Batch of 4 targets.
Target 1
Amino acid sequence: MIWQQLSHWTCLVKALIFGLLLQPLMTQPSIITQPNFVLLMADDLGIGDVGCYGNDTIRTPNIDRLAREGVKLTQHITAAPLCTPSRAAFLTGRYPIRSGMDAINNYRVIFWNGGSGGLPPNETTFAKILQQQGYSTGLIGKWHLGVNCEHRNDHCHHPLNHGFDYFYGMPFTLISDCQTTEEPEMDRAFRRKVWLYTQMIVLATLTTAIGRITGLFSVHWKTVICLAVFTLLFFVSWFSSYGFVRYWNCIIMRNHEVTEQPMVTERTTSFILRESISFIERNKHKPFLLFLSFLHSHTPLLTTDKFLGKSSHGLYGDNVEEMDWMVGQVLDAIDKEGLERNTLVYFASDHGGWLERQEGKRQLGGWNGIYRGGKAMGGWEGGIRIPGIFRWPGVLPAGKVISEPTSLMDIYPTVIHLAGGAVPQDRVIDGRDLMPLLQGTVDHSEHNFLFHYCGTHLHAVRWHQKDSGAIWKAHYVTPNFRPLGAGGCYDRGFCPCFGEGVTHHDPPLLYDLSQDPSESQPLSADTEPLFDTVIEQIERATEEHRRTLTTVPQQLSVYNIIWKPWLQPCCGTFPFCWCDKEGDDKLADL
């Protein structure tokens, strides 16, 4: 009898264990290890350009699908309002001022493939940590974080030196110079200043040389030679900005190899999409990270014939709709391989839309909805509030909307933790793991304060007062819009960070974004009883934040951004750089 009872209980236990083992894996999201990551980043896309964020005239059904099937963030903030510093922050989880990727001058992005500035080799990207965790890591599209440091083939800033196993795309960024039919976009103010500096250094060189020869004053020949070298560098940089930009900057690389110089823009979209889908197919049997960094919707707005004239917003709308179609193609590839339930998909823009980008009556930049300002403006919401969407079926709830302050830097700890890695402990990481917020296990973001820089200049600070729900934002510096009453710096093309083009505010302009998201009605001590308390709290947090900053080499210094011929990537014999190694490939069918 006892043996019969034992046999009965043994059968029950075995049946229970067997039943548990048959439970589908996705009913227990907590035990999923090493999901795939597909990170989609648009270029210069405004938050108001997307259907699920309120646009009802530009068609973005695939991005809208991501929002329906996942989580939409309505207060997703970039760490900088321009490409280079924003992308540095995204990859490192750190404010760009910490890595030297924000500028003290007006040259706030990398200007040349042949410059020496870029993402420092000692920075640890999430790609590098995922690579160490056994992931296949790929970057397709735009980089814009530098190439070389000391010679043409050291690749110290290159994606492959920052954790990516595979790279296909532009080491630089799209500019209108890349298309022969467009007006040159290379910064005219930059050209004027380089020419001015060249003249000044020539004068200094001649003065010191004459002084040395005549004995009017004592100066070492080494000093004269150094000045002469700088004169040559500045002259070559100025001269190269006329006619050579397309060959120096508009190139395509596959890993370390230059494959198109200059790039063939008519097929760039097809090849980027082909490479993205191929990467997914090649790595479907192991964990992978794909960072698809779109060239859309940056000027010159490369758009294939299939989408030209199809939108209600001219070339810009056509370009956004084509990018949305590309998003759909990538999602279809994920679904086709049966990877959708083990793949976290993320969509965002690197910063707000470029309001001032116009040609005549044509608007070639994006729209930032109700938010004031745009690209290059470090404080106003329009420059830093971006789309942010996560989809992971079975793990993240569908159709959820989160209005808590989050940051582009939060992707860093989020993907690292999901991949089973650990964030570096030897440096400050400003991003926060978003999974508890996305899954609903917590109600509030971990961010109490977010600091909004324009270059290295702090323009504004945001404080999320969680007990009251208020989101205070203090502006210490704002750009001067021109013409008066306009919403941007149309006289310059970009709003500056300092100098005569900005206004300093003491006391700062204060807004409660929870009540006034468009920042139209500044508060004062007369209209807001908590004004002094809020400003005091923000200033205390700002001082604590500044104490965490350390002095680092400036990657965007004048010396680092000027063109240096010995650093220029070249697929021929320099300076005769020309090739088309992709020409024999069959063009991807759009």
Target 2
Amino acid sequence: MVLVSAVRDYVYRMLQDISGMKVLILDSQTVSIVSVVYSQSELLQKEVFLVELIDSISKSKESMSHLKAVYFLRPTSENIQYMRRQLSNPRFGEYHLFFSNMLKDTQIHLLADSDEQEVVQQVQEFYADFIAVDPYHFTLNMPSNHYYILPAVVDPSNLQHFCDRAVDGIGAVFLALKRRPIIRYSRASDIAKRIAHETALMYQQESGLFDFRRMEMSPLLLIVDRRDDPVTPLLNQWTYQAMVHELIGIQDNKVDLRSIGKFPKDQQEVVLSSEQDAFFKANMYENFGDIGMNIKRMVDDFQQVAKSNQNIQTIEDMAKFVDNYPEYRKMHGNVSKHVTLVTEMSKIVEERKLMLVSETEQDLACNGGQVAAFEAVTNLLNNESVSDIDRLRLVMLYALRYEKESPVQLMQLFNKLASRSAKYKPGLVQFLLKQAGADKRTGDLYGNRDFLNIARNMARGLKGVENVYTQHQPLLFQTMESIIKGRLRDVDYPYVGNHFQQGRPQEVVIFIVGGTTYEESRSVAQLNASNSGIRFILGGTAVLNSKRFLKDLEEAQGIARSNANVV
């Protein structure tokens, strides 16, 4: 429960010692940080009667001196300006200021100068500067995630903001874990190298903060680039959490159902959290086929409970029902939530013929055989039921796999894509190859460069695969296996500084610049459960599905085009 517990502990400490009625004031980032670990009812138990955003509270003038204000903000210059204005004309009885990362001395002086009425009771740094979506998975929710694709010369100031946010997030994770890592990065990636070096520099400059008790083995921070594995975010998913994100979308552990149909008000947005939902926790990594069976079982259990509740004959029965009602209502809400999600996803799968599409995707990702692959992709491009986005993804997956060995067929697919899908020009596929083609990647994405990987793939092929739709394993899985075996090559993943790590680390944080996927967080959870002696944590700049990955590509392509003389 490592990351979720760390953030929960910070929120608990912020609210626990301040007695009386409180208002919690957050910014657009910290609202996500708090909402994934604390429910509204838990905040109420801590006497938080109002949660407001700092920019909207700035517009109000009404005095609320009976409330104590607890601010939890990122230490940005914009937030400091908001605070200065609010302290110059205080509306609340007390101000308790908590920042999610390190404050600069100048910022502290500005706040002190603004507090003329001495309403500020405390200013503290609580290092929860990341969104802990699962116990071993965090994200930074960076809206400008596409900057990782662009060369540094295109937009230096925005790229610097991007790198600063990544360094802040990584620094906060290690401060929350009370560790100081050794750092390695993906050799082929300029941005991974830059973030690795800037993180190392921060550790030098803030060495007092990171002066933790030395462990025998320092943890490892490995910074890699999404472009090393562009395949994983392009694939359809067939395990529960990943599939919900791919087909509907998850934001801060919430699913907004309004985008796919009309639902009653209390079901328009549902929470999918392994911390708050036992059924989801047990099934988040299960295959779609098994989920249907498990939901049926849950519905049967619920009907048993409902039946016993209908059998109310005495006053005692009624009292018992009222006592159990909150639990009953919660169970009812949970059952209807999962039934709704699975029903809606089944409709999408049928509508977009995703089982057909996905079988070819998996073949493109996992098995050789260019002739059969070309035929399968051509047939799907001709199939009227296949959507534009699925056609684009199929051509991208084919291009990534066979860019070197079948340029002629690739051109044929580009032409067919252009004629079938007016919206997507083949230029986006070429842009992907330019950014994440074979010459740009670190690691053995298709398991065909390294003799050991070729042998392993053959062995897997002989053993057979239990499920054709989930045979793909992300490159991250191989990377973690290499770390467990002590075989992560220095030439591919160099160290920052004159560090070198003998032996295996016990804790590893892998940060993917450009974003993670739920398929990768599933690999992390499975390896952590396998008792390899190493605890892995996965983090990234965003949580991707194919839609977001393609949107980032398109945005980067647009900027690259308008700077064509630079790129």
Target 3
Amino acid sequence: MAAAALANGDVRAGGGGAVPRPTNPMVTPLLTDLYQFSMAYAYWKAGKHLDRAVFDLYFRKSPFAGEFTVFGGLEECIRFIANFKFKEEEINFLRTALPTCEDGFFEYLSSIDCSDVEVYAIPEGSAVFPKVPLMIIEGPVAVVQLLETPFLSLVNYASLVTTNAARHRLVAGKPKNLLEFGLRRAQGPDGGISASRYSYMGGFDATSNVAAGRLFGIPIRGTHSHAFVSSFLGLDEIIDKALSSSDGSNKCEDFVSLVENWLVKIQGASSLRGSFGETNQSELAAFTSYALAFPNSFLALVDTYDVMRSGVPNFCAVALALNDMGYKAVGIRLDSGDLAYLSIETRKFFCAIEKEFGVVGFGKTNITASNDLNEETIDALNKQGHEVDSFGIGTYLVTCYAQAALGCVFKLVEINKQPRIKLSEDVTKVSIPCKKRCYRLYGKEGYPLVDIMTGQDEPSPKVGERILCRHPFIESKRAHVVPQHVEELLKCYWPGNSSVQREELPSLNENRSRCMRQLERMRPDHLRKLNPTPYKVSVSAQLYDFIHFLWLNEAPVGELR
């Protein structure tokens, strides 16, 4: 039933209110690396393809020189395995790609699906840390091996951009609006859609991406470009166009008259006298036309010619004319120049208008800033002082310019109930063997203290009981913890043929709320931008002993001559 529901697009309990997204035609069982099929054939040839294997999907280091990551991509992984089935044309292609493989192998591939695969995962939108499995995938080794590349592809970018968005949210602060403007700079349409989805999950408030708005129910926002402003010649053009149409000419003329009158009043206002002269009339015409089209959502781009000498005064004239007609303008957007200085001067101008003309609330009119913003520039604006209410962020957000990839890995940790370990001269690349359970231990102040991994059959940590937490590889790093709250991290999202109850997939809004709650529960020093305190990830004393026993057992003993 679960597979059928997911295959039909019903991917969340209760639907979540969002329009279901169709399966991406590019995400097929062929979306993998050739060596996965090579290994599957070798497993099949050796009669090992049905061996029961357990793989961990995890990462080794948090991105952006930080100490936390936000997990994204789980729903897409579950959608992928729900629809995992080779089509006849895909099998035919594989026959040409693997001409030396026997016919029986392709018959085997034609028969497989993920009905015997189990997936355990940390809930999407959670704060996660290195070495702790984001997902544990159990099933026939050949099938699970074919899931490695697509799962990594679906999780790596999703988690990276969600984390990037969350970092922007943290530096901007809760009261600010964050708008994702990255579609035109994203790595293709798929990258743009994913960026919009996971930026929203990471704490952004809206996107300019209309397709993402339809697919995921994300609020969409946008105004106009410099091209729109420069396309107008003057107010007479608006009136002439209105007169040539069958309706609306009187309304248009009346509104233009209001705008012109307000501009004269602003120019003559004692508190604003001398701050500007004649404004650009094509810009005034563009603002007037846009306000006529969108009187309830008028937001103007004010830097086409000159922000303080033209853009802001022209906006104010149109906004005050709208006010006379019973509407309220939304605000302005700054897309160039010294954003700190211009936002402060604009706020002063708005406050002067409110005081001069008694328009209550005008001083709080929204100021949006864009122009290649990123985490560093927002941090710099905060230190300088500014009056920006909303940030529009594109290139640096969706391309994850500061770090190209998260670097998740997919490692075998058990086969046929026999724990396996991957060794390396680089200790950070040594895997943690066996099927595990993972817990987050909280202290008396409500903050998470440490994540701990235990063997599958070990007793769970208990509130108030003293637990020895050990670094998995460094003997001297250990601490006793008495947790005030214990949270088991991994839940079953795809039970396969087991009797384990399946966890329902939350909606995107629920994942977004989880992300915000999780970051609020973290200690501030773990989240800070500069020199964050490392979050502790540990193993139980029993698992520590077993790791090192297996390590010594598997590592070859050298011989000196």
Target 4
Amino acid sequence: MEDEQEPPLQPRTQIQGRVLFLTICAAGIGGTFQFGYNLSIINAPTVRQNSVGEKAYPVEADWHLCPQHIQEFTNETWWVRTGWPLPDHLVLLVWSLIVSLYPLGGLLGALLAGPFAIMLGRKKSLLVNNIFVVAAAILFGSSRRAGSFEMIMLGRLLMGISAGVSMNIQPMYLGESAPKELRGTVAMTSAIFTALGIVMGQVVSLRELLGGPQAWPLLLASCLVPGVLQLASLPLLPESPRYLLIDCGDRATCLAALQRLRGTTEVMVELAELEEERAACRGRRARRPWELFKDGTFRRQVISLVVLGSAMELCGNDSIYAYASSVFREAGVPEDKVQYAIVGTGCCELLTAFISCVVIERVGRRVLLMGGYSLMTCWGSVFTAALCLQSSFPWMPYLAMSCIFAFILSFGIGPAGVTGILATELFDQTARPAAYMVCGALMWTMLFLVWLGFPFLMEGLSHFFYVPFLGVCVCGAIYTGFFLPETKGKTFLEISEELHRLNFPGQSQGPMWRSPEVIRSTEL
């Protein structure tokens, strides 16, 4: 009789797998996809010539016309208002503010993500976050008709806030909703949607589509489409079961969410694990960001988060993107085809994000991080040598172009996705929102500093501009190899116990777990 009852469970399990897949898509399309999309549609820098060696070398990409159109709109708007053209240096200043307000908004959003996740929950935070998207889209779409470049600046700030919130809450939501054997794979989808957003932004921004002089308001306002898709789909999907039980104490709703995400055969086993984790958090309120730096029980976790989070932003991947168009020209790519070669770089990162998603639960987090940073060190060194010798050998530009693709592939297979999992797996339920606030604030600050300092680095170091980034890649590989614990296939409780032993090597006993009674871990 038991054999006759087992087959009907398989289609039911497949249905539950589809619910998890739809949850990933609904969270990703309005989450990290928005970050990658808005990063690529406007952040391609404008043309500026810089003397490198004996050649006039275009330091920054000009394949993207949106910056040029927005600067022309700024100048025209100022002319209509005052009767005088805006000086070139002020036009550049306005453009710099438009670009830099995005990471500034991201920093503000990262600081809001923790309180949002605690007070509203993971799913509702992602839904409420679309208020910023809708407001920004209205500002972008109306800016030209209203003759106001200030509306573009405010819209960029709001989109940055939205990106800061979603980039922290999406991996938190998915990591808490996934089973332990798929937690790494599910969390890696955040990197997939980031890369997908970058590629989609690069494609939509082509001259033949929305990259023309009349269509740029539509290009900026197109961020509304992913937001609407998330608003239409995410309400139909379950909240994080871990949040429902541990933070809210709602066992019935947690059980229903688990049944939708897993199927009835495995729910009771996982529910028992959640009850154990709930017991571990009994009587503890939600941590504040500054408390993580003071508490010795989080010493290894915080150091790992700061070191590897900084390494991901300072490894030079964004700089490689900025330098790509000039290298493609030196390799003989026609001017009108450079934009398609740039799209190819985004496709490389998307490809490796898919590969990492497939192999992460087989090889582990440490292997992908160490391998990624080691390969980036290798290709970055060859890239530097190729730039220095490009005037001596005619085939060196082709080698430099190959190194760009190889470097982006190496970044995508390791640091791009694995780093985002750290805050989910290394911190317990009470400290996770605060950890994401720290991680998000660090990421956006580093991103702003890289964008600010890269032109000066190029001017000062010329062909050797990538040498400082090589040092960061080496440090990232060394730290991962010696200090980062492997979390593959472990429950959150097992990870917490291992980290407790690492933080307090003199103690043979792990943290004292309490019985599962009433818990409210989300008090601010």
